[in-house]
Prior knowledge:
169 residues, alpha+beta, DNA Binding (I), subunit A, 2 domains, 16% strand
Amino acid sequence: MTRITSKAEKTCLGCMKVKPIKEFVTIYGFKNPRGKYCHDCFLIHERDHAVSLLDGRDFCLYCGKKVEKAYDWTPEGNSTRNYLSRDHMDPFALGGEDSEHNAVYCCVSCNLKKGNRPFTEWLQILSPEYRELSRIIYAEKHGHQPEDFTPSLNRLIITVDLGDPMGEL
């Protein structure tokens, strides 16, 4: 049965429900009566995208923080805030591959905390629940345990000591 809609409402292409045009948004979530999807469908799409990046999880692999979306956007389509970050489990700086076998998405906070630590060192910082899950995922992706990774320092790393920040030597 086809429903005749007024100019003040239209059908959302996501949920196929007729809704007021004031509920429609752009692909970045900003109100726009010409949008194809309602705000509710936009939020579902954003969450589904984050879950796909997290390999089917709706939480950070390392800390368990719930993730509802990957990014915030400007009306022009530029990312203004990232909620997820790509982590190299074996740090690239220590010889880890830049590949899907060595990468997971996690919350930005955990990726910053982990930095270039070897994965075995990072595991010791995690709570037991996420330590075990991270170890399992590492082994699934790499085909070996984190302890089997041998860092290679084939990259030049330069450390500069600027002395005492207060100017005292």
